[in-house]
Amino acid sequence: xxxxxxxxxxxxxxxxxxTALLSAVSVVLQPDFGDTTDQRLALIGDAGRAATVSAxxxxxxxxxxxxxxxxLGHLLRxxxxxxxxxxxxxxxxxxxxxxxxxxxxxxxxxxxxxPGPRAPYIAALDDFESSxxxxxxxxxxxxxxxxxxxxxxxLWRAKVGPRWVPLALVGFVVVEFAGTALSTWAxxxxxxxxxxxxAALTATVRTTPDQVWETxxxxxxxxxxx
Length: 226
Prior knowledge:
Layout lengths: L1 H28 L7 H11 L1 H28 L4 H32 L6 H11 L5 H24 L5 H14 L8 H22 L19
Helix pairs in contact: 1-3, 1-8, 2-4, 3-4, 3-6, 4-6, 6-7, 7-8
């Protein structure tokens, strides 16, 4: 059980670090999207490689994000059992939605880099964004926002990690998903809050004892003759 517990702890810590770094790179390099599809394609095309790296790191960040929230849910299971189940579930839905939407982002970057008229690409993107498939974008946004807020509540209730971490996570959600429309300083501030919170949680995970990551002994199946 000790080796299994250490594996869980190591994977959770690694996922926290990977999620924070990949997400930070994605936000820092993300170009302005403008107000229209035409402007978005033009701005992404002007950004060049930075836009590509931003989209790729956004997609890559979703996989360790799943491991991070599941691992943190494991830490909450004793003192906040309901939130330990609910927060990771909602966050996983958000990560899945973002991963699907990330595929559309990669396609948009590819369209923006193509020479010639953009009218066909504009029409294709407008059709996609008005189709039921765009529900994945809403799933990613709502699932991630609610998942992080529920996770912050669970960390606060279970007293896992420094007490300022849940507040930093709430601040990140407010600044990243509301403040970016009001100020150019919102993105760097949100990145700083995200990195600080995940760094502190990584340190917390790394210092927890093996017993915290154990789930008990699995009982062997017993076969009886009828």
